[in-house]
Amino acid sequence: MNHNGNGLPILPGATLGVLGGGQLGRMFAHAAQRMGYFTAVLDPDADSPAGRVSHHHIHTDYADVDGLARLAGLADAVTTEFENVPAPSLEKLSVARPVAPDAGAIAIAQDRIAEKAHFTRCGVACAPYAVIETAAQLAAVEDALLPGILKTARLGYDGKGQQRVSTRAELVDAWQAAGCVPCVLEKLLPLEFECSVIVARGRDGQLVHFPPQRNLHRDGILAVTEVHAQNMPKTVAQAAINSARSIATGLDYVGVLCVEFFALADGSLVVNEMAPRPHNSGHYTMEACDVSQFELQVRTLAGLPLAAPRQHSPAIMLNLLGDLWFTAGGDKPVAPRWSDVLALPGVHLHLYGKIEPRRGRKMGHLTLTGATLENVRAAASQAATVLGLPALSAADFA
Questions:
Q1: Per-residue pLDDT at 3 exceeds 50
Q2: Beta strands 315-321 and 269-275, pairing class
Q3: Is 157 annotated as a binding residue?
Q4: Which residues are ATP-binding (predicted)?
């Protein structure tokens, strides 16, 4: 054991801790173990995907004082795999161990109101919006913001906590349906496509980034990510990279950060939200880049140098939801046709170790890589057909 307070770097042989036992924690644990670290996971689920592959699984609530003390005792540094972990828990851990990202960055990412204020401070454009915390603010909303999307300020992800509204009456009903909690109303803009950028920033301020990812969502959940040199106009790609770097630097951020953007019909770019962790749209980095987003998470946490990642293959990522287990109809899950999928060239299957498939639940992903973009697209289309996913059309691609 290599407990060294805030002394960095923390070298292989030490133990790295993670709050959260989902698939992102699992992939972090795999990356850390490959580099020679031991891992400790704190998660309330006895069957959590990360807990099942880690050296230590502390099976407690994220706010449990004893559990946090045990994690601090085992781990030389601690990260998180999702943004809704209580910020005070990270604050507690940071007294004893290096924590990255810190509680302040997590707290901002947990609250859309604080998040948008941060984007504005960094000079990064958002969609026009209004904060609605009171009936008076609701009444004062400008007509120009309609039609729009009402989003709860807290605990919204994968399209949850969001309602489209076209009229004032719909806005009032939607706010009441949300329980009159603090919300943000965003103006609906003419969207060309969605994209994201993943950056990693060290404690010394060193900052590296992956190429921007072009993303397709279905029902508010990421379905397809495509990453290659022609996936978007170069001016849009550079603007996204510059904005993501500004947002990370403005937070004095340490760790891996994903920033999601809307590219508009007029060629401009507005920021949507940030995720203070590795991201679904960055899973392709495990096969298509020489350093993955999870290895960079390990490096930022341990205070190791950050090598600028290099993408060596065009890539497409297909999200695998629990719905795939029910394509034959009926209530009993049936395993998808993995053998037929794995017969395709350049296929990399990742299943997350979740015991029970459920509709809408992220069960895994498929990354396709190849020598040429045409090869990758052909294999991705075949994989989608085999699995019963919606057909990939030319419109889905850049």
A1: no
A2: unpaired
A3: yes
A4: 112, 151, 156-162, 186-189, 194, 217, 272-273
pTM of the model: 0.95
Tell me: is residue 142 an annotated ligand-binding position.
no
d(CA 82, CA 12): 24
Length of the chain: 398
Rg of the Cα atoms in the chain: 21
194 annotated as belonging to a binding site for a ligand: yes
Q: Are 77 and 28 contacting, i.e. CB atoms less than 8 angstroms apart?
A: no
189 is in an annotated binding site: yes
Query: How wide is the angle at C-alpha 276 spanned by C-alphas 246 and 254, nearest 5°?
Result: 65
Q: Would you call 160 helix, strand, or coil by DSSP?
A: coil
170 is an annotated ligand-binding site residue = no
Which whole number is the average pLDDT over 173-179? 93
Is 23 annotated as ligand-binding?
Answer: no
92 annotated binding-site participant: no
List for the chain the helix, strand, coil content (%; round to 5).
Answer: 35, 25, 40
Residue 354 counted as an annotated binding residue: no
For residue 20, how many C-alpha atoms fall within 13 Å in the half-sphere facing its CB? Answer: 21
| 186 annotated to a ligand binding site | yes
Domains of the chain (ranges plus CATH)?
15-100 (3.40.50.20), 128-187 (3.30.1490.20), 191-396 (3.30.470.20)
Cα torsion through 161, 165, 168, 172, rounded to 10: -20
Averaged pLDDT, 307-324 = 97
Amino acid letter for position 333: P
d(CA 349, CA 249): 34
